[in-house]
Amino acid sequence: MRILWRRWLFLVVGGALFTPYAILAGVAVPLAAPALKPGIDGAFVAAFMAVILLAIAATSLLPVVRTLEGALVPVLLGGAASSLVVTPALTWEERGRTAAWYLLHTIFGAVISLASVLVPTTAMLLLSSWIRGDAVVPAGDREVSVPDSWAPFLALGMVVLLLAAIRGSGAAAAWLSPRLLGPGPAARIAELERRSAELTERNRLARELHDSIGHALTVTTLQAGAARTVLHTDPGFVERALLAIEETGRSAAADLDGFLGLLREDDDARAAQPGLGDVQALVASHRKAGLPVTLGIEGDLTAVPPVIGREVYRIIQEGLTNVQRHGGAVPTEVSLAVDGDELVAQVRNLAGRGPGAPRGRSGGHGLDGIRERVQLLGGRVEAGATGHGWLLLAIVPAGTPR
Question: Does the pLDDT value for residue 359 go beyond 50?
Answer without folding.
Answer: no
